[in-house]
Design goal:
CATH topology of chain B: Cytochrome-c3 Hydrogenase, chain B
Strand content of chain B: 5-15%
Helix content of chain A: 10-25%
Helix content of chain B: 40-55%
Strand content of chain A: 25-35%
CATH class of chain B: Mainly Alpha
Shape of chain B: globular
Order of helices and strands of chain B: HEEEHHHHHEEHHHHHHHEEEHHHH
Distance between the termini of chain A: 39 Å
Radius of gyration of chain A: 18 Å
Largest interface: A-B, 41 and 51 residues
Structural class of chain B: alpha+beta
Oligomer: heterodimer
Largest sheet of chain A: 5 strands, mixed
CATH topology of chain A: Beta Polymerase, domain 2
Strand order of the largest sheet of chain A: 1-2-5-4-3
Shape of chain A: elongated
Strand order of the largest sheet of chain B: 1-2-3
Number of domains of chain A: 1
Mean pLDDT of chain B: 86
Chain lengths: 167, 400
C-alpha cells in the first residue's frame, strides 16, 4: 500500500479521530492526534492489511511553538512504509507511550524525553538515558541554555564550530 | 598410579530450576546480589555499565546504563553546515566510518535530490565493503578475546591492518576517514590502488577458512557459544535489533538486498543467515558465524566492484557536489542503510538554511543494546560476556 492508500484506510477505520495528511516534501506523513495515537498504532500493527511490525525510528523535533514526534514504520510482510506525526504544545508536551506496541520505542522515547523533554505517558521506566540523571534542561530544545555548573564542575560553553556561509 | 574418582561436583542450577527461579517461585541461594559490570570493564566494549542482579550465579535482571560517551552529535549537527557533519559521523561508530559517511551522504542526497555518477557509486560500494570487512574483523577479534582465545585476535587485527593501509592510501585516514562527501568523494582513487585491492582479495580469501579451522570449528568454542544468549527472531523484530543479529536468528533481512541503494542491486552476493548449527536459531554462535560468512560475501562484492572500476573511464568524483549549501531545499527525510552493525538511519529536517534544523541518528548499537534486559535474565554471569560480545556494540555509536 502507498502512503495515501494507508491514509484513506486509516481515515475510514477511524472517522472521528481527526487523522490528517501532512504534505511534507519529499516524504509525506500522517498526522495523528495524541489522544488517539495508541489506538491507531495498535491497529497499524495488528491489522492484516497493514501489519507494521517494525518501528524503524522515533524522532522528536522542536518547531518553536510545537514539539513533534515522528514515527517511521515499516512492514516486512507487505514491504510498505508509513510515517506518523504527533504534535503537542510546548507548554504541556505529553504523548502516550508506544512501548507496549513496539518495544523499540522504549529507549527511543527515553532519549526523546532526555533531549527534548517530551513526557511519554505510561512509559514503564521514563528516565534520562544519555545525560546524567540530575542534568538540568533538555539540550535539543531550541531555547536551551546550558547550566553554569554541574557538581561544582564549571561548564563554560564555547561557541561551536563556525557555520561558514549562514543563509 | 593415579586413581580416577567420581567427584561430586555441584554443576549449578538446572534449566528447570532456573525457570522456577525466574518465575519467582524458588530461590537458588535465597540471597540476591547486585553487581556493577563496567563502566571500566574489558568485556563491555567501551564504557557501558550493566547493573546486574544475581541469584547465585544466575542473572535475574540486567539494566544497561549508557551515556558515558555522549558527545551531543545531534546538537553539534544543528550548529555546523551540511558538509561539516560528515567528519562527525566518522566518530559515531569509529570501527566503520565509511559506512557512516555513506549513510549520511545518501540521506542528504535524497533530501536535496542529488544524483552521483555510476563510477562514484561503485567506489563508494567498494570502500563501504572494505570497511565492513574491517569492522567484522574487529568484532570477531574482540569476541574471540572475550571468550578467551588470544591467537585469532592477533591474526584478525593483522588482516584488518591491510584494509587500513588501503584506506590510508585512498584518503589519508586510517580510522576516521571523512571520505564519502555529499555528492561525491574527497579524493579520486590513486593510481595502482585497484591492483592492491585485487591483491587484498586474493590475500583475504584463504583467511576465512583458516579462521574456521582455528576458531569457528573448535569444539570448545562451539560448546561455549551454542545455545547461549539466544535472541529469537520475534524478539529481534519487537526490539528493533538489526544487522547480523537478526540474520543470526534466521531472518533473511539485509537492506542491501531488500532496499538497495548505491547500485547494490547490480552486484551478485548472498545474505548469510543463522542456521542453528550449534544449538538454536539466534544463539551467540549463529551471530558469530553470520559475521564470518559476511566477510566472504563482502569480498565477492569488492572483487566485482574493482573489476568494474578497472574497465570504467575516469571522471570527476566531485562533479555532483553542490557549489554552495547556503540555500537548500526544505523538507524532512528518513533514510536507512545497512551498516555492519545493523540499520543506520538518519531523520533529517531541513528548513532551507545552510545548517540542518534537526538530525536524528538511529544508531544500530543503540537499538541492538536495548534487547539486553529482555535476553539477559536466566543467563550465567560468564554468559553475559558472550552476549555483549556477540551483539557487537560500539558505545560511540550507542551514546552518540
Amino acid at each position: 500500500m502507498t502512503q495515501s492508500e494507508i491514509l484513506e484506510y486509516l481515515q475510514a477505520s477511524f472517522p472521528d479521530a481527526g487523522i490528517e495528511p501532512d504534505e511534507t516534501e519529499p516524504e509525506p506523513l500522517i498526522i495523528i492526534p495524541p489522544e488517539h495515537l495508541q489506538q491507531v498504532a495498535a491497529f497499524l500493527r495488528d491489522d492484516e492489511k497493514l501489519h507494521f511490525e517494525c518501528l524503524m525510528c522515533l524522532s522528536s523535533i522542536d518547531y518553536d511553538e510545537e514539539l513533534h514526534t515522528v514515527y517511521n514504520l515499516y512492514s516486512m510482510k507487505h514491504d510498505h512504509k508509513c510515517s506518523l506525526r504527533c504534535k503537542v504544545s510546548r507548554e504541556d508536551p505529553v504523548i502516550p507511550t508506544l512501548t507496549f506496541i513496539w518495544h523499540t520505542a522504549e529507549w527511543h522515547e527515553r532519549e526523546s524525553y532526555d533531549l527534548l523533554g517530551i513526557t511519554y505517558e505510561g512509559h514503564p521506566d521514563l528516565r534520562r538515558i544519555l545525560n546524567p540523571d540530575d542534568w538540568e534542561g533538555h539540550p535539543l530544545r531550541k531555547d536551551y541554555e546550558p547550566q553554569k555548573k554541574w557538581h561544582d564542575i564549571p561548564l563554560t560553553p564555547q561557541p561551536l564550530l563556525g557555520g561558514g556561509d549562514d543563509g | 598410579m593415579t586413581q580416577v574418582h567420581d567427584l561430586d561436583i555441584p554443576l549449578g542450577p538446572s534449566r528447570e530450576k532456573m525457570d522456577l527461579v525466574l518465575a519467582g517461585v524458588e530461590d537458588v541461594h535465597g540471597e540476591r546480589m547486585r553487581i556493577q559490570m563496567g563502566p571500566q570493564h574489558p568485556a563491555t566494549h567501551g564504557v557501558l555499565r550493566v547493573e546486574i542482579e544475581t541469584d547465585g550465579e544466575m542473572i535475574i535482571t540486567a539494566t544497561p546504563h549508557i551515556g558515558y560517551l555522549h558527545r551531543c552529535f545531534e546538537k553539534v549537527a544543528e550548529n555546523v553546515t551540511w558538509p561539516q557533519v560528515v567528519p562527525f559521523t566518522d566518530r559515531l561508530d569509529y570501527c566503520s566510518s565509511m559506512n557512516n559517511n555513506l549513510g549520511w551522504s545518501l540521506a542528504v542526497e535524497k533530501l536535496f535530490g542529488i544524483e552521483v555518477s555510476e563510477r562514484v557509486q561503485t567506489i563508494r560500494v567498494l570502500a563501504a565493503e572494505l570497511n565492513r570487512i574491517a569492522n567484522h574483523c574487529v568484532a570477531l577479534a574482540a569476541y574471540s578475546l572475550d571468550i578467551g582465545a588470544w591467537t585469532p585476535f592477533l591474526l584478525l587485527i593483522q588482516e584488518r591492518e591491510h584494509v587500513l593501509d588501503l584506506f590510508e592510501e585512498l584518503c589519508g585516514g586510517r580510522l576516521l576517514l571523512n571520505y564519502i562527501w555529499i555528492g561525491g568523494l574527497s579524493h579520486d582513487i590513486p593510481d595502482g590502488w585497484l591492483v592492491k585491492v585485487h591483491e587484498f582479495v586474493e590475500f583475504m580469501q584463504p583467511k576465512m577458512p583458516e579462521l574456521n579451522q582455528l576458531l569457528s570449528f573448535n569444539k570448545i568454542f562451539i560448546e561455549r557459544l551454542g545455545n547461549v544468549a539466544v535472541i529469537p527472531a520475534d524478539v529481534c523484530l519487537q526490539y528493533g535489533v538489526t544487522g547480523p543479529n537478526i540474520r543470526g536468528a534466521g531472518v533473511k533481512w539485509d537492506l542491501r538486498k531488500n532496499e538497495p541503494y548505491s547500485g547494490y542491486e547490480t552486484y551478485d552476493f548472498d545474505i548469510p543467515v543463522g542456521t542453528g548449527e550449534a544449538g538454536q536459531f539466534g544463539d551467540a554462535y549463529d551471530r558469530y558465524m553470520v559475521r564470518v560468512k559476511e566477510i566472504v560475501q563482502s569480498l565477492r562484492i569488492i572483487e566485482q566492484a574493482a573489476t568494474r572500476l578497472d574497465n570504467m573511464p575516469g571522471d570527476d568524483v566531485q562533479a555532483a557536489i553542490p557549489k554552495t549549501f547556503a540555500k537548500v531545499p526544505k523538507g524532512e527525510v528518513y533514510f536507512r542503510t545497512e551498516q555492519p552493525k545493523g540499520e543506520l538511519g538518519f531523520y533529517i529536517v531541513s528548513n532551507g538554511k545552510s545548517k540542518p534544523y534537526r538530525v536524528k541518528c538511529r544508531a544500530p548499537s543503540f537499538s541492538n543494546l536495548c534487547v539486553m534486559p529482555k535476553v539477559a535474565p536466566g543467563l550465567l554471569i560468564a554468559d553475559m560476556v558472550a552476549l555483549i560480545g556477540s551483539i557487537d556494540i560500539v558505545l560511540g555509536d550507542g551514546d552518540r
